[in-house]
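Shipment paperwork, digital attachment
Item: protein structure file
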Amino acid sequence: MVRAKTEMKERARALRRAGRTYDEIVAELGVSKSSVSLWVRDLPRPERRAEHARMMAEARWAPHRRAVAIRRQQTKLAAANEIQPMTDRELFMVGVGLYWAEGSKSKPHRVQETVVFVNSDPSMIEVYLAWLALLGVEPERLRFHVMIHESADVAAAERYWADLVGVDVAALGKTTLKKHNPKTVRKNTGEDYRGCCVVRVRGGADLYRRIEGWWYGIVVEASRRSERVSGLV
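Attachment content:
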């Protein structure tokens, strides 16, 4: 009896090493699943079966994912084509909203009327710079520097942002390095991670006040529009 049980155990372990599942071993040997679990629980999970299942799932879902990706791209392209050449007025309004969403703002407890814009998206930086040019902000009033984690390729990031904004690397201000915490699992890693570009306008107090006023005007007009639409006015 003991010998038979030992032989059964060895057969179960051999089947498990061959990549068989618990249910398949139970069906072949005619033993309980609890016995199989006890006999083979120290063995690693069969990678062959797991990989096979992954490949089968990939084959099943790949056409669906491709179709979704195509529809996603078609929607984006159609939306992009809806944007006609922008007027100065349209760029002006976009810039005000962009700054108020992403730029530095003065607080009642800390009045600081500075025009500073920070972003990791190069397209946001390009639109913002186009807006500043529309407002007549001279290029010599602009100061740039990079903010990035110290574990990244700092030199490559500095070259990237300098090229984007059209200045020499030497013209950038001192890069702000963020301390790296090994316990933190960051998603912003790899070659595409370039940190953030900081754009500061020198002598920007008056411009900041105008930006705040423009935003207030937009809020008032949006409120009036809502009232008109709802029939309150």
